[in-house]
Write a structure and sequence with these properties.
The protein folds into four domains: about 250 residues, FAD-linked oxidases, C-terminal domain (Vanillyl-alcohol Oxidase, Chain A, domain 3, 3-Layer(aba) Sandwich); about 90 residues, Uridine Diphospho-n-acetylenolpyruvylglucosamine Reductase, domain 2 (2-Layer Sandwich); about 120 residues, Uridine Diphospho-n-acetylenolpyruvylglucosamine Reductase, domain 3 (2-Layer Sandwich), CATH 3.30.465; about 50 residues, no CATH class. It is built from 16 helices and 18 strands. It is globular, with a radius of gyration of 24 Å. The structure holds flavin-adenine dinucleotide (FAD) and 2-acetamido-2-deoxy-beta-D-glucopyranose (NAG) (2 copies). GO terms for molecular function: cytokinin dehydrogenase activity; FAD binding; oxidoreductase activity.
């Protein structure tokens, strides 16, 4: 008996050593899997479902884009084939006197293991991926076209289905292999956000399975509390099983342009000018990024033109410092407009003050433009550089603080070894309904900047900074952000006081909605905002005052 225990211990120990070498543990051995009591398992097995529950080999459901910490494989994975499957499991878990919790998982594109670990039951949403286009809308939408996509549908498929009717959603993310439910639980931002708001501002209706296991339809006017709290709600209030998304007439083609600046103040003035212009005179997409003044790095000036040989060192103005800035815009057109396009674009660029010799253009289809990151993905995958750790950090910076942010962060911390793009572009708050759960800067000004540090931890053979120093840089940036009243986007925090500060004026409502829609605290617990404990009643008073339930 004793020797068997020793044997188990040694195996477990070896497993741990191996796991720490691998940094991220996807081992499916029992020691790395969340436990589930035989009673709970039996109960779950007795449920009548159309899809299936698996208890073994659940490793694939623990994958996470960030690869920043060890992940415990879930105890149970639900592959639903109907909304009822999800409702049945959630309802049953809510009733159990147990610590079991449930989290929806899209593609695990998060960087803080938000869709796994302590959740025990992971719902693989991608098995619910139906898409229906209503090209003439319906009476509720006043004839405005919409697409109805299930929570696990990928945005790239939503786009393809819509394009068959020459229609397309208006607001996007930079990358389309993300799920509808996953991005709507955050915000969904990109270069269209300045005009149409984030993806969450383009939803007409949702179907949600709440934490009580009820299937609820909600719109901005019907069950509106649930509607707004779920959008940007980090999976805390319900599982999005269906979303109706507004469509517009799809552009055929786009002219895609990048223009280089050496001076931040000029870059900023032009970006803000562009997002404030009248719709008829404005570009359709406005982003920008920080460029390191060096050809031979990932985010160096060689990455600015569409064909690398179009720029050479001799073209970089001698006044340029170590950091430059690139504006990125598009103008949609149809082949019939092609004749006038040069003149139209010329007049739109006229008021801007970029370096005229450092303007680059390309023409492509609307689909290829929106799907641009996927092309990069294919290249990186072939070189083994896609599934690597991603210590990403996304920040919303108030416009009044962006100059300081440039001084303290871009100009000081961005070095030749940054190893990833740094996006920076402004948006207008008026497109973000105050009732949405997503936290944005609370200062009264209308404009804030989206800043994304999308660093890659390259394999050691490539050299470059260690993962821990990259994570330290992120902490440094967050400390700089605090007095600037920034908000983290795609946030992850470990303790409740930081979550409380994150949600700020929205915290109290957030807690109240948690009590209303997930009173047993069973949804997306690895966000570490609320936690379920056996036998403990949800205490709104304790939580609202920032006391942790975890101790
Ligand atoms: C290469 C890449 C590029 C990206 N570019 C952008 C960008 O340009 N703009 C942007 O805004 N974001 C971007 N993201 C981030 C992306 O929006 C988030 O990762 C988001 O979480 C979507 O990922 P997912 O669908 O895999 O969801 P997951 O990461 O699996 O889930 C995220 C969270 O939402 C919850 N959740 C998932 N599905 C549901 C559901 N149906 N109902 C309720 N809760 C759910 C999960 O429990 C989890 O807490 C990018 C990510 C990657 C990897
Ligand atoms: C475990 O799951 C993966 C995919 O999720 C599959 O490829 C593999 O064959 C499975 N292994 C076993 C032993 O079932
Ligand atoms: C923000 O949008 C609102 C509403 O469209 C508009 O009135 C305002 O001028 C915009 N603010 C700026 C600074 O562009």
């Amino acid at each position: 008996m004793a020797s068997r225990i020793w044997a188990h211990l040694i195996v477990a120990l070896l497993g741990c050593i191996l796991a720490s070498c691998l940094r991220v543990c996807y081992s499916d051995s029992d020691s790395r899997r969340s436990p589930i009591s035989p009673g709970d398992r039996k109960y779950l097995e007795s449920l009548s479902l159309q899809g299936k529950l698996t208890f073994e080999n659940t490793t694939a459901s623990a994958k996470d884009w960030g690869q920043l910490r060890r992940v415990t494989a879930p105890a149970v994975v639900l592959h639903p084939t109907s909304v009822d499957d999800i409702a049945t499991v959630v309802r049953s878990v809510a009733r159990l006197e147990s610590e079991l919790t449930v989290a929806a998982r899209g593609l695990g594109s998060s960087t803080g293991s938000q869709s796994q670990a302590r959740n025990r039951i992971v719902v693989e949403m991608t098995s619910l991926n139906g898409i229906m286009v209503a090209p003439s809308g319906d009476s509720a939408s006043n004839g405005v076209p919409f697409v109805e996509a299930m929570g696990g549908a990928l945005w790239v498929d939503v786009l393809k289905a819509s394009l068959e009717h020459r229609l397309a959603p208006r607001s996007w993310t930079d990358y389309l292999y993300l799920t509808v439910g996953g991005t709507l639980s955050n915000a969904g931002v990109s270069g269209q956000t300045f005009r149409h708001g984030p993806e969450v501002s383009n939803v007409l209706q949702l179907e949600v399975v709440t934490g009580k296991g009820e299937v609820v339809q909600c719109t901005p006017t019907e069950n509106s509390e649930l509607f707004f709290t779920v959008l940007g709600g980090l999976g805390q209030f319900g599982i999005i099983t269906k979303a109706r998304i507004l469509l517009e007439k799809a552009p055929q083609r786009v002219r895609w342009m990048r223009a280089l600046y050496t001076d931040f103040a000029t870059f900023k003035r032009d970006q803000e000018l562009l997002i404030g212009s009248a719709v008829t005179k404005s570009f359709d997409y406005v982003e920008g990024f920080v460029v390191v003044n060096n050809e031979n790095v990932i985010n160096g000036w060689g990455s600015v033109p569409f064909v690398r040989s179009e720029v050479s060192e001799a073209m970089i103005p001698s006044s340029a410092g170590p950091i430059m800035y690139c504006l990125e815009v598009t103008k949609a057109y149809s082949t019939a407009d092609l004749q006038k396009l040069d003149d139209v674009v010329e007049s739109m660029l006229a008021p801007l003050s970029f370096h005229r010799e450092l303007l680059f253009k390309t023409d492509t289809t609307y689909f290829k433009f929106l799907d641009r990151v996927h092309e990069l993905e294919t290249q990186l995958r072939s070189r083994g550089l896609w599934e690597i750790p991603h210590p990403w950090l996304n920040i919303f910076v108030p416009a009044s603080a962006i100059d300081r942010f440039d001084m303290l962060v871009f100009k000081r911390l961005v070095t030749h070894e940054f190893n990833g793009p740094i996006l920076v572009y402004p948006v207008n708050k008026s497109q973000w309904d105050k009732r949405l759960s997503v936290a944005i800067p609370e200062s009264p000004e209308e404009i804030f900047y989206i800043v994304a540090f999308l660093r890659n931890k390259l394999p050691d053979a490539h050299g470059g900074p260690s993962l821990s120093s990259m994570l330290e840089d992120n902490e440094k940036i967050l400390r700089i952000c605090e007095p600037l009243q920034c908000k983290q986007y795609l946030p992850h925090y470990q303790d409740r006081s930081r979550w409380k500060r994150h949600f700020g004026i929205k915290w109290e409502t957030f807690v109240q909605n948690k009590q209303a829609f997930d009173p047993n605290v069973i949804l997306s617990s690895s966000q570490n905002i609320f936690s379920r404990r056996r036998g403990s009643k949800f205490s709104i008073a304790n939580i609202a005052h920032g006391q942790s339930q975890d101790e």
